[in-house]
Amino acid sequence: MGIADQLAVIPLFEGLPSEHHQTLARIAMTRSYQKGQMIFAEGDEGTGFYIIQSGRIKVFKISPEGKEQIFHIFGPGESFGEVAVFTGQGFPAFAEADAQSSLLFFPRQAFVALIRKDSSLALNMLAVLSRRLQKFSALIEDLSLKEVPARLAAHLLYLCEKDLADNKISLDISKGQLASLLGTIPETLSRIMSRMSRQGLIRMKGSHITILDRQGLKDIATEGKKLT
Q1: Each residue of 187-207: pLDDT tens digit?
Q2: DSSP string computed for 34-71
Q3: Residues 150 and 130 in one domain
């Protein structure tokens, strides 16, 4: 599949005329990263944004004490770093390859020139960024107002909806990373998952989780119901 064909099915550019995909493909640059390789650091000049062809990218911040807080882990077809396109400022967080990854890089100046010619590109991007802002707002609310069981329950339900899963989830990140994403530590996360399993809410087998009681998880995530 050529780059233009790949862009046609990516949410950021879906619905655009095929000639737009061809134009975008001409300014895209392919870049490869090994696992653990930094793509950009917080404060680096925002020279463009990225779309993931394959692999997995972790976006995170580091506190003054050195604690890592993961904001998002992106997979194939997803984009990141778009804020730089609109602000021209530095990247607001770190981005690191969480697996061997192949990316498409879109230079800011070339992309802005395309937007000036056709505003439909910007409208698509704004829609995607708006949905991401909603997710980040929910994450901030969860981290500040909800206890860890509610955060975990909400995340498991989110994964089911995102992947259109039939109550079965395959975690593609470590428990340590999941703990960071949920604002807790691996030991606490493991204890809560074990309690959910004993209560009949989920069944765990390695990195695979089966949701047995979706309504029970919703009660914990949204109603504040306590685990027994």
Answers
A1: 999 999 999 999 999 999 888
A2: -TT-EEE-TTSB--EEEEEEES-EEEEEE-TT--EEEE
A3: no
